[in-house]
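Below is a filled-in request sheet from our internal design queue. Each sheet records the structural input a requester submitted and the sequence that came back. We keep these sheets so that new team members can see what a complete request looks like end to end.

REQUESTER: design group, bay 2
PRIORITY: normal
MODE: inverse folding
CHAIN LENGTH: 146
BACKBONE (tokenized):
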């Protein structure tokens, strides 16, 4: 419940968590977060700060879509969460994975189970940054040591 103008109720904490994930995933540092959200959503920095605190969110679907597009996210995930692709890259990766042979799927699962190794983390980071395609990730994953 709201107790004053400076102490607003956090009603949209799940939305704020998803926004935080997106900014972390994009490598946006703390001092630039409100500015990045403002630019992506076409809103003021004050409104962006409220989004980040979870005290507000876009009121219209078009506002949510503008913010999602500006952050390279799927609007459904940003608005509601759930077990759906969060980014366009994830959808592309899942689409590639659906076309993989069983052998390649097994290779990917083995590689994912090795994420504690430094080399595997570098491969995944390079894939996330767009420096590797899903096929290149799979090809290189075969050489990751246990």
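RETURNED SEQUENCE:
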């Amino acid at each position: 419940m709201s107790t004053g103008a400076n102490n607003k109720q956090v009603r949209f904490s799940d939305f704020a968590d998803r926004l935080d994930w997106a900014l972390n995933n994009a490598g946006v540092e703390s001092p630039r977060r409100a500015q990045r959200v403002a630019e992506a959503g076409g809103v003021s920095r004050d409104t962006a700060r409220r989004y980040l605190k979870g005290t507000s969110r876009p009121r219209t679907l078009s506002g949510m879509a503008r913010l999602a597009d500006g952050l390279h996210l799927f609007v459904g995930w940003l608005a509601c969460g759930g077990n759906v692709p969060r980014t366009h890259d994830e959808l592309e990766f899942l689409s590639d994975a659906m076309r993989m042979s069983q052998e390649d799927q097994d290779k990917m699962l083995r590689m994912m189970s090795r994420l504690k190794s430094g080399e595997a983390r570098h491969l995944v980071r390079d894939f996330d940054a767009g420096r590797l395609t899903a096929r290149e990730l799979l090809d290189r994953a075969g050489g990751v040591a246990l």
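SHEET NOTES:
- DSSP finds nine helices and no strands in the chain.
- The chain has two domains: 13-80, 88-141.
FILED BY: M.R.
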